[in-house]
Design goal:
This protein has three helices and 23 strands. The protein is mainly beta. Strand 17 and strand 18 form a beta hairpin.
């Protein structure tokens, strides 16, 4: 269950370089150390983070991780300062009754159920100044197509829905990013929607309305995974193509895994409002997965290759069932 954590306060770690928080050993006592791998230094550091024990975690590019524990509690958590800010409980999300009606929590492993609850949680920074509670908007993406995308701010008591308008209601949101004054929502079919950041940065808790923004790139074939990120001012869409691998394990013939076989990168042309296929990233390296996607200048870091895409295993469905891990 890989996770990127971005450390802002350690002077010897540059805040622009993503780190990898390695999976916990669930046999350990909750009062344990987590291994944080630094690709720049090619070594692991240990942090005592009992707050993450048993929780699913999502990393962000602004120093916070979001934890979702076995009691369906969500928190913003800073792994260095150990600051922990409560977020509204999962039961306050619109559409939560869907899970109660269709899933028996007594029969389903809660690790699997959490994947259906939430596929991705993102922390959007409202402004660059200060570190107060009002500086962030948290957006959740459900793990099943008919789920409702929601948002909240630290201090809110409930999650608020984000409503789709003029977009195929069957299309599910796969990623979200802030781009200037807009928050852009990427759908699985390559369509993008948007709303102004001010529509979410208020305290009225009114449902936000998404407007259709752009059609998918020309000849775009929807992959199973698609990501959105801002790279040095450019808005990029990254599609990840995979194939299933049948392992034919004697004791479990249904056990299988998958392999990432290709990436496609598209950049938005501001002049034409069209997506253009990109074949070279030059000095840029991209990092994608179920955490916040990001990019860096590879030449600024050792052990970071330019014109490359780094990715994590983001197929939660197979984490506990397949003997072949990683999806590499």
């Amino acid at each position: 269950m890989a996770l990127r954590v971005f450390l802002l306060y350690k002077k010897k770690w540059n805040k622009s370089m993503p780190l990898l928080m390695l999976p916990e050993n669930t046999k350990d006592h909750p009062n344990f150390f987590r291994n944080i791998f630094c690709p720049n230094n090619q070594r692991c550091y240990q942090l005592k983070l009992p707050q993450t024990f048993g929780a699913r975690c999502w990393g962000s590019s602004c120093g916070w991780i979001v934890t979702f524990d076995l009691n369906q509690n969500l928190h913003m958590f800073n792994p260095l300062t150990t600051t922990r800010i409560p977020l509204p409980h999962q039961s306050t999300m619109p559409g939560h009754d869907f899970y109660d009606d269709f899933f028996d929590k007594d029969d389903m492993d809660f690790y699997e159920l959490r994947g259906l609850f939430l596929e991705k949680v993102l922390v959007i920074q409202v402004d660059d100044g200060g570190g107060g509670r009002g500086d962030y908007i948290i957006i959740t993406i459900p793990g099943q197509p008919n789920g409702i995308v929601t948002y909240a701010k630290p201090g809110d008591l409930v999650w608020t829905s984000i409503i789709t308008k003029e977009i195929n209601i069957e299309a599910c949101v796969k990623d979200v990013v802030r781009w200037g004054s807009q928050i852009i929502f990427l759908y699985a079919d390559g369509v993008t929607g948007y709303c102004d950041i001010n529509a979410l940065n208020h305290s009225n808790l009114e449902p936000a309305m998404l407007m259709k923004y752009l059609p998918p790139p020309e000849r775009f074939i929807p992959p199973y995974k698609v990501y959105l990120l801002v790279s040095f001012g450019d808005l990029l869409m990254v599609s990840r193509h995979k194939r299933c691998i049948n392992d034919e394990i004697e004791d479990d013939p249904d056990d299988f895994s998958y392999q990432t076989i290709d990436f496609e990168v598209y950049k938005l042309n501001l002049g034409t409002k069209n997506w253009k296929r990109v074949y070279e990233l030059d000095d840029v390296a991209l990092f994608v997965g179920d955490n916040t996607s990001m990019s860096v200048r590879a030449s600024n870091f050792s052990n970071c290759k330019s014109n490359c895409i780094y990715f994590t295993d983001d197929e939660w469905q197979f984490w506990d069932t397949s003997e072949v891990k990683g999806g590499a």
